[in-house]
Design goal:
- The chain is globular and about 60 Å long.
- Helix content is 41%, strand content 20%.
- By secondary structure, the chain is an alpha+beta fold.
- The protein has a 6-stranded mixed β-sheet.
- Helix 4 runs antiparallel to helix 5, helix 8 runs antiparallel to helix 9 and helix 10 crosses helix 11.
- The chain binds alpha-D-galactopyranose.
- Alpha-D-galactopyranose (GLA) binds next to helix 5.
- The site of alpha-D-galactopyranose has 12 residues, from helix 5.
Amino acid sequence: VSAGSRAAALFETTFAGAPEGLWSAPGRLNLIGEHTDYNDGFALPFAIPQRTAVAADPRSDGRLVVVSAERPGLVDTASAGLAPGTVSDWSAYPLGVLWALRQASGEEVLGGGLSLAIASDVPPGAGLSSSAALESATALAINDLAGLRLNRHQLAAAGRLAENRMVGAPTGILDQLASLLSRPDAALLLDCRDGETTPVDLGLAAAGLAVLVVDSGVQHRLADGGYAQRRAQCEAAAEVLGVRSLRDATLAGLEAARERLGDVLYRRARHVITENARVLSTVRLVGQGEPRELGPLITASHVSLRDDFEVSVPELDAIVEAALGAGALGARLVGGGFGGSALTLVPRERTDDVAAAVARTFAARGAAAPTPVEVHPSAAARREA
Ligand code: GLA
């Protein structure tokens, strides 16, 4: 049963009536370009088939009432005075979007209140951006219900503001742009400095390649401090290098400032500089019809995230190693790191071998084997009904 029908059914049982509409938005997989977005850099995500749906209806009693098929209980809070600190936990994502849209429009958007029922197929904490899926579906719903006529870049900004201020995770714009602006069958080259998005045909299926996502089972949480610390280190490195952001740094400039940066800031900056270059190389290679050549770039991204940026965990390293040993062309952690999933680029005829190798690795650690999930570029956020 799709997330859409589950959200609609949950709405009807909770609110004893039909919602005005149903909206959904996808999670995303970032093919390459990690921890570059908040450095004004490049990334190459695509929307995945797994989606989050929200059924929504305005209210007139001044209450915000939110239920989720994935969470126990019901959140019921006052519409007036909604602000950072007034809601916590998972409802900070959808209600944070309402707050952010009030900030963006300068109006008391849906001041009479809102009923929301949520259902999701995007696994949480897996590095597939369940948070952006929820934010983007909610943003689209509120935009329609309140007649705001904001464009998708503005809705993405509202999702990010919700996450930054209501949830307290200082994330960039990658996830929300991917969820709101992706096209089916293409990845999206993001220039996070100006928000420009360019569809890029990856040609993976035609080249006989599959992308498998393997959840390490280690839940990652971006509000936990490691992410914010990396971000602060990038800003500190940019300052030492005398550039506006690491987007403008070069390897030559980095080497010249090595002493002044110190080992940690040097490695953090090196990751960002080389990762931006890997994104552009990826786009070049697929443009030349060579998607099989992407493997080494993807694996180099992992090594850089592991050694220079230090956001991997042993479980992710083990998945990457097992997949490469079983015939994957490339493998790396995806998303913010500190847990979550790894992606593997695999010739179609080797997908069973990769799944088996990963299962053996987990068994050797006494853990239950995850089921690798195949993902392919899918549709962006949309109204369903
Ligand atoms: C998380 C954040 C994004 C981005 C990635 C790392 O997904 O939400 O903004 O920084 O981590 O690339």
